[in-house]
């Protein structure tokens, strides 16, 4: 029962965090935040379905109908998953705040935004998307099922396509500045080796 309450509560809190950031940036900038890209639409649909499936899976008969992977269920895995959910909420709030008014969902060709290179963005180009990956892994640890695995896979694929589109847009918009930033940061994980080499005399 406790893990059910936490699973539902943390999932809803993650969604509220995302929606709040969208509303805050839209209010400050007066510009639309979400782009009309097909992969943006796909990611919104598939990630929403992930949340719905996770919440519905708290009902055991429904969970079993989703292709439950019972062999992976374990109290320790559930605790680890809930911990990751908590981390993902903190991470999504921090990194979206670091984007300030450059926060967007997808690429807006007609909008020029600042290239953020500080905070966590000094090490990783996409920490926001990383927070989603942490979230999906956490959900899977708590309620492993084939349906959730499939939906998470579709969402990760759509996110990756969004990122590739965004990288091309940022390169065109910021030129060498973005090229240098891209060379010293990882797409999802930091490039510690290159940073260490630059720090050598």
Polypeptide structure, described:
With 201 residues, this protein is mostly helical. It has helices at 2-29, 38-56, 60-65, 75-98, 127-142, 146-174, 176-184, 192-198. It starts with a helix and ends with a helix.
Describe the secondary structure blueprint for this structure.
Elements lengths: L1 H28 L8 H19 L3 H6 L9 H24 L28 H16 L3 H29 L1 H9 L7 H7 L3
Helix pairs in contact: 1-4, 2-6, 4-5, 5-6, 6-7
Characteristic key phrases:
8 helices, 201 residues, 69% helix, mainly alpha
* Beta-strand percentage range: under 5%
End-to-end separation in angstroms reads 57 Å
The largest β sheet comes out as: none
Task: Please state the structural category.
Answer: mainly alpha
Total helical segments: 8
Percent helix, as a range, is 55-70%
Number of strands: 0
In short:
This protein has helices spanning 2-29, 38-56, 60-65, 75-98, 127-142, 146-174, 176-184, 192-198.
């Amino acid at each position: 029962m406790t893990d059910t309450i936490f699973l539902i509560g943390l999932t809803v809190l993650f969604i509220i965090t995302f929606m709040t950031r969208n509303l805050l940036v839209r209010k400050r900038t007066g510009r639309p935040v979400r782009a009309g890209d097909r992969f943006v639409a796909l990611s919104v649909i598939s990630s929403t379905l992930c949340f719905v499936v996770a919440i519905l899976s708290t009902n055991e008969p429904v969970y079993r109908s989703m292709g439950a992977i019972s062999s992976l269920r374990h109290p320790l895995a559930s605790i680890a998953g809930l911990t990751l959910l908590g981390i993902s909420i903190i991470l999504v709030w921090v990194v979206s705040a670091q984007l300030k008014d450059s926060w967007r969902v997808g690429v807006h060709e007609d909008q020029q935004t600042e290239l953020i290179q500080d905070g966590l963005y000094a090490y990783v180009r996409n920490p926001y998307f990383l927070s989603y990956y942490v979230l999906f892994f956490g959900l899977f640890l708590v309620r492993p099922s084939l349906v959730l695995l499939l939906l998470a896979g579709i969402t990760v694929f759509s996110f990756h396509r969004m990122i590739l589109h965004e990288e091309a847009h940022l390169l065109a918009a910021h030129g060498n500045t973005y090229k240098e930033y891209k060379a010293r940061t990882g797409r999802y994980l930091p490039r510690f080796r290159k940073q260490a080499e630059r720090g050598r005399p």
